[in-house]
Write a structure and sequence with these properties.
Blueprint (H helix, E strand, L loop, with lengths): L1 E5 L4 H12 L3 E6 L7 H12 L7 E5 L5 H11 L3 E4 L8 H4 L1 H21 L4 E7 L23 H20 L3 E6 L2 E2 L8 H10 L4 E3 L6 E2 L2 E2 H12 L23 E6 L5 E2 H12 L5 E3 L15 H7 L7 H16 L2
Parallel strand pairs: 1-2, 1-4, 2-3, 4-5, 5-6, 6-11, 7-10, 8-13
Antiparallel strand pairs: 9-12
Helix pairs in contact: 1-2, 1-8, 3-5, 5-6, 7-9, 9-11
Bound molecules: nicotinamide-adenine-dinucleotide.
């Protein structure tokens, strides 16, 4: 199978590329290697992919997904069987600082992916959505059957827009599409702009950590290997129309066309202060906490209902934060030599 993985130098994309190569698939990895965070980490992830025994089946393409002509040519030349689209401008807080980046990468870029799939008979498009689409919802756990019309940030709106755009292509061109709502992903090779990375760095450097919402968040932190398993099990399970779907009582989580959305989350919301305590144990060092208010665009709690994923693929995330955080700390110490 020949798979396009966008965002291949990113946190999740690099792990997915490695998984596919290890099982013998051919991977074209695309990324624009932008400097939203330290690009040397992106280069190091690519080096890691290229060091795999199966790396002869990997080709890296440096390109932006919003490059319309470039994307048209790439799709026409490569004729991918399937696409895993993970390239995006990520981050809730940065969407307040630089909103245009979200329209360029997440909306224009997604449009080019849909067109590429449509014109080149791609058999399944799997793309990253986000738990942030649940926005102002407070009914827990969040289920794909819930209405998600109240995003709290432009980032969330761009992900919800992707789900809607995908639906139109599943309808008009019978393109099977699956949107995956990831819940706060963490683990080795993780993102420097995310809490676990920032906390670890600050604690090791004897700096205070910024604890938003005075630590009263509950987050469904999800380990990277569980996310990868979830992506692969949905990639292998091409989206199908739901025979029980009816327009009289429309279920927001499926459709009469081959369109699906799933949550991938640990189903164990953890209090932020507990998460920090687990990190302190893994590091053998206490954090100095600076307690701050809830950030604009952030939501206080997340909790995934994964029944739709389990019913359709049989897969359920299971990694505990103790295991996950220990693995992260081991990687961090090793990579940064601290
Ligand atoms: N990490 C999480 O907690 C989380 C949660 C929910 C959803 N997601 C989504 O999962 C996907 C992957 O996230 P990640 O954590 O690996 O982030 P990441 O930033 O590490 O990876 C994204 C990669 O895409 C590349 N990229 C960004 N814009 C691009 C563009 N316009 N053209 C080409 N390449 C571009 C970046 O250089 C980066 O390497 C994203 O779509 C993100 O929104 C992540």
């Amino acid at each position: 199978m020949k798979v396009l993985v966008t965002g291949a130098a990113g946190f999740i994309g690099s792990h997915v590329s490695m998984y596919l190569l290890e099982r013998g698939d051919e991977v074209v990895g695309l990324d624009n290697l932008n400097d939203y965070y330290d690009p040397t980490l992106k280069d190091a992830r690519l080096e890691r992919i290229n060091a795999l025994p199966g790396a002869d089946k990997f080709r890296f393409v440096k390109m932006s997904v919003e490059d319309r002509e470039g994307m048209e040519t790439l799709f026409a030349e490569e004729k991918f069987d399937k696409v895993v689209h993970l390239a995006a401008q990520a981050g809730v807080r940065y969407s307040i600082e630089n909103p245009h980046a979200y329209i360029d990468s997440n909306i224009v870029g997604f449009m080019n992916i849909l067109e590429g799939c449509r014109h080149n008979a791609v058999k399944h498009l799997v793309y990253a959505s986000s738990s942030s689409v649940y926005g102002a919802n407070e009914s827990m756990p969040f289920a794909v059957e819930d209405n998600v019309d109240h995003p709290m940030s432009l980032y969330a709106a761009s992900k919800k827009a992707n789900e809607l755009m995908a639906h139109t292509y599943s309808n008009l061109y019978n393109l099977p599409t699956t949107g995956l709502r990831f819940f706060t992903v963490y683990g080795p090779w993780g993102r420097p702009d995310m809490a676990l990375f920032l906390f670890t760095k600050a604690i090791l450097e004897d700096e205070p950590i910024k604890v938003f919402n005075h630590g009263n968040h509950r987050r469904d932190f999800t380990y990277i290997d569980d996310i990868v398993e979830g992506i692969i099990s949905t990639l292998d399970n091409t989206a199908q129309a739901d025979p029980n779907w009816t327009g009289e009582k429309p279920n927001p989580g499926s459709s009469k066309v081959p369109w699906k959305v799933y949550n991938i989350g640990a189903q164990t919301p953890v209090h932020l202060l507990t998460y920090i305590e687990t990190l302190e144990n893994a590091l053998g060092k206490k954090a100095e906490k600076e307690l701050l208010p809830l950030q604009p665009g952030d939501v206080p709690d997340t909790f995934a209902d994964v029944e739709a994923l389990v019913n359709d693929t049989g897969y359920r995330p299971t990694t505990t934060i103790e295991t996950g955080i220990n693995n992260f700390v081991q990687w961090y110490r090793d990579y940064y030599k601290v």
